[in-house]
Specification:
Order of helices and strands: EHEHEHEHEE
Largest sheet: 6 strands, mixed
Number of domains: 1
Strand content: 15-25%
Number of strands: 6
CATH architecture: 3-Layer(aba) Sandwich
CATH topology: Rossmann fold
Distance between the termini: 27 Å
Organism: Acrocarpospora phusangensis
Strand order of the largest sheet: 3-2-4-1-5-6
InterPro entries: His_Pase_superF_clade-1, His_PPase_superfam
Protein name: Phosphohistidine phosphatase
Helix content: 25-40%
Structural class: alpha/beta
Pfam families: His_Phos_1
Radius of gyration: 14 Å
Length: 151
């Protein structure tokens, strides 16, 4: 059994003239990321896989988890099916994974994996999904939605 925690980056700034990739978190976003880390930490993640954009990187770092953090640029503009491809490449030694990404792909990933219609997935929201087999076999409809959290 594997556990996937799909986390949308926390609330980001909208500063004129700043490229989307370089947008950082607001003060509220920073607080929400720390709070999410307290809750997610109870699940003892083995790895955090995050988009390399500034807001997702900050979110992942502010979780304050002892798990290694790997930045993956391809998450930034990935579609949900491309996120599935990344998940299938996770090593078999990882039992619990945190994926930090962007909407709409993370929201669509949760719905696709679980078949559960999650109404909204605002900044800082996350879903906990149990997967029955190895990462290499992750596919649509194979997950069970265990929990969701919205800040």
């Amino acid at each position: 059994m594997k556990t996937l925690i799909v986390l949308r980056h926390a609330k980001a700034e909208h500063t004129p003239g700043v490229l989307d990739f370089e947008r950082g978190l607001t003060n509220r976003g920073q607080r929400n990321a720390r709070e999410a880390g307290e809750l997610i930490g109870r699940l003892e993640p083995d790895l955090i896989l995050s988009s390399s954009s500034k807001r997702t990187r900050q979110t992942a770092e502010l979780l304050g988890l002892p798990a290694p953090l790997e930045l993956e640029r391809d998450i930034y503009e990935a579609y949900a099916d491309e996120l599935l491809v990344l998940l299938r490449q996770v090593g078999p030694d990882v039992g619990t994974l945190v994926l930090v990404g962007h909407n709409p792909s993370v929201h669509e990933l949760v719905i696709g994996l679980t078949g559960h219609q999650v109404e909204t997935f605002p900044p800082g929201a996350y879903a906990v999904i149990e997967l029955p087999g190895p990462w290499a076999e992750v596919d649509s409809g194979t997950g069970t939605l265990v929990d969701t959290h919205r800040p």
